[in-house]
């Protein structure tokens, strides 16, 4: 990743991100902030690696993905945890009668999962089980006691953000200092369904984020919580057959009390020449209206990580390509 002009695109030796039109590759790139689909850590996890002192007094998970594992939450030290909305890790086999028998079974299980088996794989699995046992009462407590000022929509993204809000409500009692979450919504490979499909998906995002922000505001923590979007790529302005095609540059939404909101940050495309997309220099990456990004993912991520507490030196470690850019802070966080 480095500043890219239209003239660079005809230079075969210029290092562009790999597989720019591939969904799977670009989904990984957005989470790792590396210019290729490789890498074993995400920039959320790497940020938490640099800020370990903030979480020295907690054993609660600090990097949580909803529904499926996400490389965004993985660091060299930070371990990503995957949870499901509505799943509070109850164990059905522990509801037996009498209570003393249930307690004996729980005690035996605890002894098993905390014992050193001598096998690295078994010990790792036991550690996951032990963490789940410890999380169970905490998650159930949040589920039963959290009051939301505005109902969350019963959509996949709404359910995920509702669960994240519940977990955030536990932070003060769990001594969590810094925490990242990852949730996802698919279906944006719209092509011929652009007009209705994108409208419907963005409406789901809007309603879910509205309820999420209402919750953080009601709890007085809106300045401490920032929600932002990541996406593999945008769409072309020129249709492909029956609809839009895979693009490159994209717009992102950022929401929170610390956000300098109500405005567009970065350079908005001029879009002044529709007969020849290449006629407006550096707006387009090709003659099909593929937007050429004016802001890099690492600049976007570094702006958020800086607000999160990372120092300038730590930002260089989290985002190795950040040194290629003069502007390190896009300016959308107060």
Taken as a percent bin, the fraction of beta residues is: under 5%
Sheet with the most strands, sense and barrel status:
3 strands, parallel
H/I helix tally: 9
Q: Could you give the order of the helices and strands?
A: HHEEHHHHEHEEHH
Radius of gyration: 22 Å
Helical content, roughly? 25-40%
Low-confidence stretches: none
Please give the alpha-carbon distance between the first and last residues. Answer: 25 Å
Structural class: mainly alpha
- Whole-number average pLDDT? 90
| Coarse morphology | globular
Q: Give the oligomeric state.
A: single chain
Question: Could you please describe the fold and organization of this structure?
Answer:
There is one protein chain. With 334 residues, the protein is mainly α. It has a domain at 6-39 and 185-324. Helix content is 36%, strand content 5%. It has helices spanning 23-32, 43-50, 99-114, 120-145, 156-168, 171-174, 194-218, 297-308, 312-318; strands spanning 63-66, 81-83, 180-182, 226-228, 254-256. The strands form two sheets. It has a three-stranded parallel sheet with strand order 2-1-3, sandwiched between helices. Helix 5 packs parallel to helix 7 (194-218). The two termini are 25 Å apart. The model has no long low-confidence stretch (mean pLDDT 90).
